[in-house]
Amino acid sequence: MADTIKVSIRHLYKIFGGDPESVLDLARNGMSKTELLEKHGHVVGLRDINVDMSEGEITVIMGLSGSGKSTLIRHLNLLIEPTAGEVLVDGIDVTHLSAVELRDMRQTGMSMVFQKFALLPHRTVLQNAGLALRVRGLGDGEADTEAKKWLDRVGLQGFEQHFPHQLSGGMQQRVGIARALTSNSPIMLMDEAFSALDPLIRTDMQDLLMELQKDLHKTIVFITHDLDESLKLADHLVILKDGYVVQQDEPQQILLNPADPYIEDFVSDINRARVLRVRSIMKPSSKAARASAGNIDYDDTLESVIARSGGSTAKSYTVKRDGKTVGILDMKELIKALVPRLASQSGVRGNVTS
Predict the structure, then answer these.
(1) Going by C-beta distance under 8 Å and a sequence separation of 6 or more, which residues neighbour residue 9?
(2) CA–CA distance, 64 with 244 (Å, rounded to integer)
(3) Distance between CA atoms of 254 and 264, rounded to whole angstroms?
(4) What is the percentage of the chain residues whose pLDDT exceeds 70?
(5) How far, in Å, CA of 281 to CA of 210, rounded?
(6) Which of 286, 161, 316, 272 has its CA nearest to residue 254?
(7) How many Å apart are CA 303 and CA 278, to the nearest integer?
(8) CA distances from 110 to 76, 116, 352 (A)
């Protein structure tokens, strides 16, 4: 994990209704979302959110519909103002910014990729990609040069003069990503950015984002309702329910150590062999395994190790990272890791909506 905290959310509350301040203490003292609505006509959108987002990492916020994830991301650039709490970006509370400072932050400090693309239909692909720079006052030549660089990077060479309606959904979202990258902002906010895409295109976009991130090291806040997408993309995963954080951690740790039955239900149907990596279950060691069956990489999936072992539980492997021995993996321990805890019967996975 990175050492530098780029975004820090502290004791954040958002209550919707005619007089949120009047019921804030009730929410702080634990009144349920249902009771607050029935007795006082207010809705708790977010309750005591505390999340640190590290520089250069992808923080994924996930949850079911109505969990508060989109409400949360809109607090980062103050499209929604909190009822209480702090949103610190580089140590500065954005809730205290002046109108001019807030506009500058939105234009230069953060970019946003939307679920529905949000492209201007009367502008070309090139003009859409360079929009942020034009808004800042850069000339067409400079904006076009920078926009073309990022359009090329996302695989849209030759489409600069097309209009959005001439592109597929996946191509339109590539324009949205290029637009965010053209702004050169250190933080990217992605609100259900791939949810409107077909499954194969969605996978391609996930792969593209991960490929770009290897080089760019942006601080990315990614909103999704999809657990598979979360586990694939997240360096840090935050799971919301009814406006509060149920669990947050490195995804591998959440999968291995779910905090409660709600999380257990989420992870119960995941292909653990495909998601879990050697680093999460190995025994740390600077010495090679006795009678080692060979070397495996720190970041290999358990699925690849099972294939290599031929399904044998009698083998042990020496784990390497950057050429150095860092651990030992016993196949018996690997098999244990494939068995999830007994999930509860609340059936939350059946309620996930697309």
Answers:
(1) 49, 50, 51, 52, 53, 72, 75, 85, 86, 87, 88
(2) 12
(3) 9
(4) 95
(5) 24
(6) 272
(7) 10
(8) 9, 18, 29
CB burial of 107-118 (b: ≥16 within 10 Å; e: otherwise) equals bebbbbbbbebe
Separation CA 206–CA 98 (nearest Å): 36
Beta bridge partners of 318: 295, 328
DSSP 8-state symbol, 18? S
Question: Percentage of the chain with pLDDT > 90?
Answer: 59
Mean pLDDT score, 266-275:
85
Q: Which pTM value belongs to this model?
A: 0.85
DSSP letters for 77-94? TTSS--SEEEEEETTEEG
What is the C-alpha to C-alpha distance for residues 73 and 75, in angstroms, rounded to an integer?
A: 5
State the Cα–Cα distance between residues 62 and 342, nearest whole angstrom.
Answer: 22
Q: How confident is the model at residue 233 (pLDDT cuts 50, 70, 90)?
A: very high
State the DSSP string of 301-342. Answer: BHHHHHHHHTT-SS-EEEEEETTEEEEEEEHHHHHHHTSPPP
The residue count of the chain comes to 354
Looking up tokens 């804030």 gives: 24
H or E element that contains 50: strand 43-54
pLDDT in tens, 168-200: 888 888 898 899 889 889 999 998 888 878 888
Cα separation, 201 vs 212, in Å, equals 16
DSSP letter at 106 equals I
pLDDT for 242 beyond 70: yes
Phi, psi angles (nearest 5°) of residue 145: -65, -45
